């Protein structure tokens, strides 16, 4: 089946299925969403107005049997950052969308009248339907209701109350193979979907499948590729403890941002660690390993049960646990899991929202350590859209502005995640220069700074950090275009067979002959496209820096500050 | 007495009195505050952090007998806009500060421990004192308490609860000769003062006075200057009806922004007009004319009494009345006066806050027309700093972001005031290009667009608007440096004797020989200093535009849009 662009205009309530323009043909995932947003969205437009577009694209390898290729990219101008934005997540949607022959779904315009809609996509059709039952409901209610209402196992993208209220931290949530939720969490893309009055999108692939130009070559490349992933030592740790294996690692490194980024180690780290989590999961009959999409060989997800043995939450990530845990000084994993579940249900970014709570605690809205208070505010204030709920739901910068706090860990208004940039300086470069606001996944310098993956770069030294972050950001932009999970990067950095196998997969899929240089050029070109959008939107070098306090407040225990000058930072873009 | 720089360091709780650097000697008022902020404040710093400075300066002619020379300039990096900011107001402080020999008061740093302070300035001393009684109190309580506590009639600068809570719309409020309040309202300078934990500043001039180099020349120039002011036809209207004379004028022009900028005429305009206000004031025994500082010959202020004949509010301006009136659809002048009084007491900008209410009404927080609701929210929410109170108190952009509203009338996050830029296009140029966010006083193109002052430029045509706004912005920057009220501009534009007399005043004051060209060069240089700060803070041409809806939503009754391209707008800076 030929790939097509599926387009939905919410102003006219019309749809179309279009051929792919030639200039978009070589793109997928993030490369495609960013190319389309840059081509079709006015950089200065209001992110929640009619000129913004929500673009959803599977990766170049999504829908194939390639290991770990099930990530879906969603792009738009972000209401949180004002920059171009791509957020990717697992779940079943990328694979199903690819099988349905959809290269990208573009949602544009805004409905004129009140009321909510859903969108249904199949290989032959795309329809807009009025929706009256589910608006106002949380994401879990959406999944339950649609399980009854719909036949088969369509992919589902949904927004909770946060997206409906156009909160700047709202997720687009994506159903996984077992009915759990994965989140396109960063940058408020759920608010863009909410502004267009779309409660959910279903994708039914019928009997569609992805064609492979050279099937035997593809199979062989996948065998090599999957083996490289499984052979990497980090894969085992991720499978056993999930990403939360990092709590103890980063705490040990003195880089676990604690109490709203005033310290680098958290006294309660053991209680929230991956090791403790693993024991609790096993003890309560949860699942320590779980895959967020079919074909994942790493399985870093998990099912975390409550004390009664009932499922409490799934996909319980390090960055979420760090944010509610160390950053808010909550040393109770059950409270963190409860908050995680509520945030998944409301459909709101766990990183942005939890870091926002850290700032709210500094402002005196609640006490540090008050995990029950976090759950109460999420339920009573954020879900209901009260004044305080809106302040929290609009993110960390929003809380800082509301209460006049100056220690506000954001870049381009997006919360800095779980690695303090003072003592993991490579991450500081990534946070500051990323085209999308502070985001660890944009250039995960923790690799060489802490994990010894892809070499070793002293985390406390400035030496080599800009080059490291640049190389990682370029590679990440390319990987995010394939539909591959970012965790393939560990093997790609350390195992010389991994990256050639990935390129072989691309070549066999499309019958082309990409080289490693082509992939680097693709990554560079995506970054430049994204930066071009941001410059036209009004961003400058002055936005490519960390908040002042990182330069002036030494971080215990190493008592270091972030010490790159703006001029040094600007050299990031010399390529 | 030689002029000095008085400096207060709140980090070390120390003060100093310094000589004036030579490069600052020719500056006063806005020219001086902007020069000092540009020289001493890092453009990328957090406006509420230790690196921002609050700079307070009388004008070059303040403290003399020159008519209308009593405006005080306050500058800083604005927490509302992120730009450089100067806001000027009447009251007694400019004249007293000049008589005390203070060319500028610079407040820097932040105290390390909790608690509040006051600052007391005399010609020989500047002291920091702990203050425990007045924090938490409104501005009127501050004036009452200090009237009992202090001898004589010192000038008083104070912040209310809004400033203490570092709300981005907080005023610095200034006592007038009769114990009423005038406000440095725009841009949240009260939040900067609050961040430095200063509740109030008192200035006692002792027997200080301003020296005049050539007293006779000065007196003669002032005679000509004051006559020019009094002879101008607009002066009479301003004296009789106050600035609120404009409600009917701008409504008639179809440019009175109504119902959150969705129409240009307000059905209830008569009820809130200057003419109605005048009748109410006279009927209730108020004062239709009142001067905000000694030596004002225009007297556009007034005392507005309630139905019982008790003073309700003073300095009841067109822009405030428009914002609560037409923009929020409140056609009850008593409710507007009550809200005005509360905002003066809390110390919060009436324009920013009322336009914020208009957006909140669009979001459904309260109904359009609900003047009682505005007063209730101000008392119950803003004063107490609840979630909703913080959202409102942080301004129009804050409300828009909190509720996901796209029709948000701000430029650089500052609310657009009482003249719709679609049908008074010269004001659109000023709002968009001003170095300080949307501000009518920065380049009041209403003159030639509507009032026939300084020529005639068709308000609905693009022709000549950029040049008009540029000339006005240059002239305003110069006038704002003299300590002169902006209303001298009407005479300066129309009476050929006025501007030469003003220059004679400056020359006689300092024994110098400025020409008209020098004054133009001064204005240009101030604008460029301010713009330089903004560029270094990260502002670009993309910030010099109006919100999207002004380009896409035609304004009734003329059904026109704002139609300058970004490229045309950029030519503003070609000088």
Could you describe the 3D structure shown?
The structure is a homodimer of 575-residue chains. Chain A is an alpha+beta fold and 575 residues long. Chain A has 3 domains: 4-203, Aldehyde Ferredoxin Oxidoreductase,  A, domain 1 (4-Layer Sandwich), CATH 3.60.9.10; 214-240 and 421-575, Aldehyde Ferredoxin Oxidoreductase Protein, subunit A, domain 3 (Orthogonal Bundle); 242-419, Aldehyde Ferredoxin Oxidoreductase Protein, subunit A, domain 2 (Orthogonal Bundle), CATH 1.10.569.10. Chain A is 40% helix and 14% strand. Chain A has 23 helices and 17 strands. In chain A, the strands form 4 sheets. A 6-stranded mixed beta sheet of chain A has the order 2-1-6-3-4-5. In chain A, a hairpin with a 2-residue loop joins strand 16 (410-411) and strand 17 (414-415). In chain A, helix 10 runs parallel beside helix 12 (350-362) and helix 16 crosses helix 18. At the A-B interface, helix 5, helix 14 and helix 15 of A face helix 5, helix 14 and helix 15 of B.
């Amino acid at each position: 089946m030929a790939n097509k662009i599926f387009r939905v205009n919410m102003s006219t309530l019309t749809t179309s299925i279009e051929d792919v323009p030639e200039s978009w043909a070589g793109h997928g995932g993030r490369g495609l969403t960013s190319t389309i947003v840059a081509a079709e969205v006015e950089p200065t437009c209001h992110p929640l107005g009619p000129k913004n577009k929500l673009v959803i694209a599977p990766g170049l390898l999504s829908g194939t049997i390639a290991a770990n290729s099930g990530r879906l990219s969603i792009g738009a101008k972000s209401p949180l950052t004002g920059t171009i934005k791509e957020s990717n997540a697992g779940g079943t949607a990328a694979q199903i969308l690819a099988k349905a022959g959809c290269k990208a779904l573009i949602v544009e315009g805004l409905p004129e009248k009140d009321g909510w809609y859903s969108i249904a996509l199949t290989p032959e059709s795309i329809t807009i339907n009025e929706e009256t039952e589910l608006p106002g409901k949380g994401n879990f209610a959406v999944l339950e209701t649609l399980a009854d209402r719909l036949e088969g196992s369509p992919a589902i993208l949904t927004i909770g109350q946060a997206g409906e209220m156009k909160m700047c931290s709202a997720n687009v949530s994506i159903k996984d193979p077992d009915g759990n939720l994965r989140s396109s969490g960063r940058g408020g893309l759920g608010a863009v979907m909410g502004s267009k009055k779309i409660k959910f999108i279903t994708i039914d692939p019928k009997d569609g499948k992805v064609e492979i130009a050279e099937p035997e070559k593809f199979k062989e490349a996948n065998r090599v590729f999957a083996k490289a992933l499984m052979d990497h030592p980090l894969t085992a740790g991720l499978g056993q403890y999930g990403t939360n294996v990092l709590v103890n690692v980063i705490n040990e490194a003195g880089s676990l941002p604690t109490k709203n980024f005033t310290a680098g180690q958290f006294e309660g780290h053991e209680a929230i660690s991956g090791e403790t989590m693993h024991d609790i999961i096993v003890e309560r009959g949860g699942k320590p390993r779980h895959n967020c999409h079919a074909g994942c060989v790493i399985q870093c997800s998990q099912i975390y049960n409550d004390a009664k043995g009932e499922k409490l939450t799934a996909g319980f990530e390090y960055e979420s646990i760090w944010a509610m845990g160390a950053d808010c000084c909550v040393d109770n994993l059950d409270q963190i899991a409860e908050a995680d579940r509520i945030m998944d249900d409301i459909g709101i970014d766990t990183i942005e929202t939890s870091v926002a709570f850290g700032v709210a605690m500094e402002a005196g809205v609640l006490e540090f350590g008050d995990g029950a208070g976090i759950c109460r505010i999420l339920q009573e204030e954020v879900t209901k859209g009260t004044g305080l709920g809106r302040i929290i739901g609009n993110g960390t910068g929003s809380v800082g502005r509301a209460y006049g706090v100056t220690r506000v860990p954001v870049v381009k208004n997006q919360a800095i995640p779980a690695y303090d940039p003072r003592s993991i300086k490579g991450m500081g470069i990534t946070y500051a220069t990323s085209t999308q606001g502070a985001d660890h996944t944009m250039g995960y310098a923790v690799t060489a700074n802490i994990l010894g993956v892809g070499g070793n770069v002293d985390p406390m030294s400035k030496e080599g950090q800009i080059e490291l972050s640049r190389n990682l950001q370029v590679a990440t932009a390319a990987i995010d275009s394939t539909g591959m999970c970012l965790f393939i990067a560990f093997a790609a950095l350390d195992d010389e067979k991994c990256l050639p196998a990935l390129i072989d997969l691309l070549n066999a899929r499309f019958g082309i002959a990409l080289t490693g240089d082509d992939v680097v050029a693709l990554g560079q070109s995506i970054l430049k496209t994204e930066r071009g959008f941001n410059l036209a939107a009004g961003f400058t070098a002055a936005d490519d820096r960390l908040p002042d306090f990182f330069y002036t407040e030494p971080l215990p225990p190493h008592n270091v500050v972030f010490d790159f000058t703006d001029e040094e930072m600007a050299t990031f873009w010399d390529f």
